[in-house]
Fold this protein.
Amino acid sequence: MKKDDSKKLYASYPESSRGRLLTEPESQTRTCFQRDRDRVIHSIAFRRLQYKTQVFVYHEGDHFRTRLTHSLEVAQIARSLSRTLRVDEDLAEGIALAHDLGHTPFGHAGEDAMKDVMEPFGGFDHNEQTFRIVTQLERRYADFNGLNLTWESLEGLAKHNGPLDGPNARHEHVPDSILKYCKNARDLEISSFASLEAQVAAVADDIAYNNHDIDDGIRAGLFEIEDLLKLPLVGDIFLNVMKRYPNLEKESLVHEAVRSLIGYMTEDVLKETNDRLLAAQPKTVYDIRCQKRAMVAFSDDFKKVERELRAFLFERMYRHEKVKEMRERVKQVVRNLFSHYSEHPEELPDYWRLEAGTKLTKRSARLIADYIAGMTDRFAFEQHRQIFNLDFEIK
């Protein structure tokens, strides 16, 4: 494919990609990053996101975000940011679409329960699970397991939230699957930052969930517009919309305010990112990876606003009695399923049963976790109903 001269020199160029673990013939119509994005879209794990929820369980309404709609919103924001920053839109979009593939059913509650049951067996992390899906668990291709993504896409999925090791790491523990891949397959340079495209995907995720949590929280009746008016910036935006459109119905008012907030956050990221790039003067994508801080970020002023917004949402949404009650119910579903399959591995589907064996080991526990993590909300409920011969009461 012809080089895109409109992009910045520090962008990721597909013709300079480090390639795939298993070499494949190049497409005549798509760049390698476009193919990565397309493989994510066509994966089974991506389709399952339609019935995996964020905060609310699938039966609670058709208008709340799912993991799929969230991923699409993140991809749209990532593509917009990438275009303005003149970096590779396809790479950023592919990472954005794939970043939540490893989430369990039932959103954060399901992941918390999975972490609990997997604690004796190495723990559970949805980012690591995403990496396992794209390198191992998708089994659709004749020549390889996983999606055989490019080095740049894998690096972005592993490090979009920052380095995994070294002085700039956010966490002490490097996920086992990523560590093993770096040792036995390809070094993803986990002590450095990822490409600008991966950093764009990470910030787009923050922009998307901050805003859709406001929308979903109001829609669910967990808080009202009046409760947001005391928050810095968020309150001002809502007040401005109310002043401009005094007779606007509630749903449209929320949409206009959220739309304005997304625009404000996007502009803030672009200004801060351009300031950081101007100071750092990177000449290549290698220079981006060698920085001591992320290049794509919110300003310090907005970070203060975001902290107050997240604190509000944590208290009024995630700790709401309605949400807490459902969280405990669905966490029990995950615990029950894990316990049952640990004691009765013969009831797993064929592939999982043969791989797990008859004794509970670290490896078989990971396989059981892989199986449960791949379930949608409704499939997990149905399996629970069949196994325990009861209808799990949901309200």
The first helix runs from residue 32 to 41.
